[in-house]
Design brief:
The protein contains two helices and 66 strands. The chain is mostly beta strands. The strands form 17 sheets. Strands 12, 13, 15, 16, 18 and 19 form a six-stranded antiparallel sheet that branches. Strands 31, 32, 34, 35, 37 and 38 form a six-stranded antiparallel sheet that branches. Strands 22, 24, 25, 27 and 28 form a five-stranded antiparallel sheet that branches. A hairpin with a 2-residue loop joins strand 24 (295-309) and strand 25 (312-318). It is flat and about 155 Å long.
């Protein structure tokens, strides 16, 4: 009995299916072929398939897997037709390939095969060769007549499998094989007289032949030369210009420049000409002024000549200055030096003038046959100078030695001041035309610190003694004073000297009596709280460098001790103590310059103090005028503020307070009272409901012992009557697109259309809520008006097509909801 196929058996036999012991139906097996191509893919084939129902299992022997196996390759002996042809070309035979397929059943080749030789497609062949399928059966590559190599790849594709074969065809680049160049270069004239003339280029070409790769047809190529001529001849287009000749005979070369061919030349000759000259000479400047010390300067010399050829002017030429000559014809020639001749001129040097008066020189310049020219030099008298190297400015602490220009330390003086001296050597050398003539003494000037004075004495020749007077020092620390000495008359020389001054000595102390010891700190206790006549003296001892020093001042750290005056005339005053406790203040005595200090501490007894003020209900604040806000509905037994009444910190009783003014009760606003018998007093408010306006009232209380007063005020909000309008309107013959209606303050009809009014009630019903007890309506007199409870409001409608106003009705505004409805119609 035949075996029914399971999935695992089918997979083992065909390679298709899955691992399972279930037996698939015919339909499930054939479903494995869905989406497959039987020409390419492996597919399930069922023998006797018609004998099975779709839902029946199939015997294993009737199930097979079939697949086509493809071959597509070049023949191993004469297959691939690829070639690499030389530039001269050639014939290359077509290649052979094998193209077929064999059917496999369950992975084993069968005897079923098909040739696919004609089921092959091919890409395009190259355009640079031809194919012969009937005769030689090959590709014919011609001679390459370009300098580019050629290449193409052709692809063959097998039907069904998509397998491909490729062949690549190439040919080397071609080259030109040339003959020798043949030249045709000519001018129509090659000989000229000295006057010159014109020669024309009549031919300027070259040619040669070539073949491609040394075979085949012959071709000709030619070139045209660019023509040039040697200077001073010139060429424009094909016309050569030969200029006139001012010298000996000469030759010109005409050159034919070819891009590739060898350049060719032709020679043109010209005879010499007759030359004559006219010479010219000038100088700049023609006059010169120089200082008495002597000077050098450059002179511009222009030497040129006019040139004539055969009597005809041809141009002016500059000559070299060296061909000119110069001589001194007036003045001492040995004091004039002429040198540095060049193409632009020469250098002239004048020796120093030894005389006290000016002098003059005249120099004559000549050049060939040119008219001579003259240079006149005027020299000033001898020059006096004071060179910086001959200026001496030095200082020393000794008259005869130790002079220098660096900073000089001249000694130390005491803090109380004194005198100190040093020496300065100061002079300048006078030169005439650079030679020393005499020495001039220069008295120095000094720049001194503030308060310092000097005395300058000429002790000998150009030596000066400088005595400095230093004032008393105003600081407790030593200091360095800097003096600057200068040479006057703009000589710009400076010397720096320094003097050290010791610190001043200071003494500072206070005492109550002249016989007491000095102290830096005193304390006056038991100062009465309010006795203005009470006083205790304090004596100040102040010395500087052992001498009385009145530069000192007072200051206080509290405002109840006041200072007036300064120094020895300063006084202090202690104010009355109004507080319930003693207090301490410090007076500081400060010595000037040294900043030394002494202190006097004053302890004042407690005073007699009354306190009377208001706080809020939480005990915060310190008020003598207090306002508590109240809502419009009023207050009932509300704690609103406290009154504090004390003497030296002790609470006072209610008997020590009296009401001196009462508005809150008088205006019938309410009652504000306290039930407490001593401070602090809690005040309770009972305030009546307000009307439509704001209410305020003030009560004043007085503390009997001190006479101090406080004021408390009530500020009550006004009552606001809010209301709502619920309005509706029905116009039986109206139109919602044409009709508008709104609220007005009077029944008077407007005389205009509705554009200037707020006609916003455009629907059958609308609600309007008041804002702070008011609504805004239209007014014929003033555009809008506010309306509240008790006011009348009028309703008017407007029809834009009819251009007609209609009075709807009116109502009085009441507190709460106001509901109104109207049924009307437009008149016909």
């Amino acid at each position: 009995m035949a075996e029914i196929a399971t999935w695992s058996a089918i997979l083992n036999k065909t390679g298709l299916g899955k691992t399972s012991n279930e037996c698939p139906t015919k339909a499930e097996l054939l479903a494995l072929n869905n989406g497959k191509d039987s020409n390419v893919d492996k597919v399930i084939v069922i023998s006797n398939a018609a004998s099975y129902g779709n839902n029946e299992c199939v015997k294993l022997e009737d199930i097979n897997a079939e697949q086509w196996i493809y071959t597509f390759q070049w023949d191993p002996n004469n297959g691939n037709p690829s070639f690499n042809a030389p530039a001269t070309g050639g014939i290359y035979y077509f290649g052979l390939y094998a193209s077929n397929r064999v059917k496999q059943v369950n992975g084993v080749n069968t005897t079923i095969s098909q040739s696919l030789a004609n089921d092959v497609t091919k890409t395009s062949e190259g355009s640079w060769y031809t194919t012969d399928y009937d005769g030689i059966k090959g590709r014919i590559v011609p001679n390459n007549t370009s300098t580019n190599s050629k290449s193409i790849t052709v692809t063959w594709t097998q039907k069904y499998s998509g397998k491909t074969l490729q062949a690549t065809f190439t040919q080397a680049a071609g080259r030109k094989v040339y003959s020798s160049w043949s030249y045709n270069c000519r001018v129509d004239k090659t000989s000229f007289s000295y006057s010159g003339g014109q020669s024309n280029v009549t031919a300027k070409s070259a040619s040669r032949t070539y073949t491609w790769n040394g075979q085949g047809s012959s071709y000709t190529e030619s070139e045209t030369a660019t023509v040039r001529v040697s200077s001073p001849a010139s060429i424009s287009g094909n016309s050569i210009s030969i200029p006139s000749n001012s010298g000996s005979a000469r030759n010109f070369t005409v050159t034919f420049d070819f891009p590739t061919a060898t350049d060719q030349t032709i020679s043109i000759s010209q005879e010499g000409g007759q030359v004559t000259y006219v010479y010219h000479l000038s100088i700049d400047p023609t006059t010169k002024n120089v200082p008495g010390t002597g000077s050098g300067f450059r002179l511009t010399v222009n030497a040129n000549y006019d040139k004539y050829i055969n009597g005809t002017y041809v141009g002016t030429y500059v000559e070299n200055i060296k061909t000119t000559s110069a001589e001194v014809v007036e003045g001492t020639s040995s004091d004039i030096t002429i040198s540095g001749k060049s193409s632009s001129g020469c250098s002239i040097s004048v020796a120093p003038n030894p005389n006290s008066s000016p002098r003059t020189f005249k120099i004559k310049f000549t050049y060939d046959t040119a008219t001579p020219v003259y240079l006149t030099i005027t020299q000033n008298s001898a020059e006096v100078t004071y060179p910086s190297s001959g200026i001496v400015f030095e200082h020393s602490t000794q008259q005869n030695s130790g002079y220098k220009t660096s900073t000089l330390s001249i000694g130390t003086v005491e803090g109380k001041g004194g005198n100190i001296s040093f020496y300065i050597k100061s002079y300048r050398s006078r030169y005439v035309n650079g030679s020393l003539s005499s020495t001039e003494t220069i008295k120095p000037t000094l720049i001194l610190p503030s308060g310092v004075t000097e005395t300058i004495t000429n002790v000998s020749g150009y030596y000066f003694k400088v005595t400095i007077t230093i004032p008393e020092h105003s600081k407790p620390a030593s200091r360095t004073l800097t003096i600057r000495a200068n040479q006057p008359n703009g000589l710009d020389r400076e010397l720096v000297q320094t003097v050290q001054q010791s610190a001043s000595t200071y003494e500072f102390g206070i005492r109550e009596n002249s016989g007491d010891s000095l102290s830096t700190s005193l304390t006056y206790s038991g100062w009465p709280s309010s006795d203005s006549s009470f006083n205790r003296p304090v004596r100040v001892y102040s010395r500087k460098n052992g001498n009385q020093f009145l530069n000192w001042a007072l200051s206080s750290n509290v405002d109840w001790i006041t200072i007036s005056g300064s120094g020895a005339g300063a006084t202090y005053k202690v104010a009355t103590n109004n507080s319930s406790s003693s207090r301490t203040g410090i007076i500081t005595f400060t010595q000037g310059e040294s900043n030394k200090t002494c202190t006097l501490t004053i302890v004042q007894e407690a005073g007699d103090v009354y306190e009377f003020y208001i706080t809020d209900s939480e005990g915060n604040g310190h008020y003598t005028d207090f306002t508590f806000p109240t809502p419009s509905k009023g207050l009932v037994n509300k704690h609103v503020f406290n009154i504090i009444s004390t003497h030296n910190g002790n609470p006072l009783s209610v008997d020590d307070i009296e009401v001196v003014h009462s508005e809150i009760a008088e205006k019938l606003i309410g009652i504000v009272t306290t039930q407490d018998t001593q401070s602090p007093f809690r005040f309770i408010a009972n305030i009546a409901e307000a009307g439509t306006t704001v209410r305020t009232g003030a009560d004043t209380c007085r503390q009997k012992p001190s006479g101090k007063t406080v004021i408390f005020r009530v500020l009550q909000e006004a009552k606001i009557n809010n209301f709502r309008l619920e309005l509706s309107l029905n116009i039986s013959n109206g139109n919602d697109q044409e009709d508008r209606w709104g609220l007005f303050d009077t029944a008077n009809m407007p005389h205009t259309s509705d554009f200037m009014y707020d006609m916003s009630l455009i629907r059958e019903g609308i609600m309007v809520d008041s804002v702070e007890g008011k609504i805004t309506v239209n007014s014929v007199q003033s555009t809008t008006k506010d309306r509240g409870v008790g006011d009348n409001v009028y309703v008017l409608a407007y029809n834009s097509v009819r251009g007609l106003w209609l009075s709807i009705g009116n109502f009085r505004i009441e507190e709460g909801n106001n509901t109104h409805h109207w049924d009307v119609s437009w008149p016909t």
